[in-house]
Request: fold
Amino acid sequence: MLDPELLEILVCPETKEPVHLAQTALLDRLNQAVADGRVATRAGEPVKERIEAGLVREDGRYLYPIKDDIPVMLIDESIPLGGLG
Reply:
């Protein structure tokens, strides 16, 4: 689990907007899209592994995955959320 103190200081590296933990419903929709082969990172790399946790930018446009309890706060590794509904 992500340390609450760390979560308080993390921001999007691109816009400096705050981020928050992704809700289960969003992760479910995202993982269905991953299973369908419809998800790519901002760099265009297909996402093939299930997303267990992530941080969503305040505007809701991008998710930064959390892998092994470590947030991956790289712009190219972020996942666009447009079209997930």
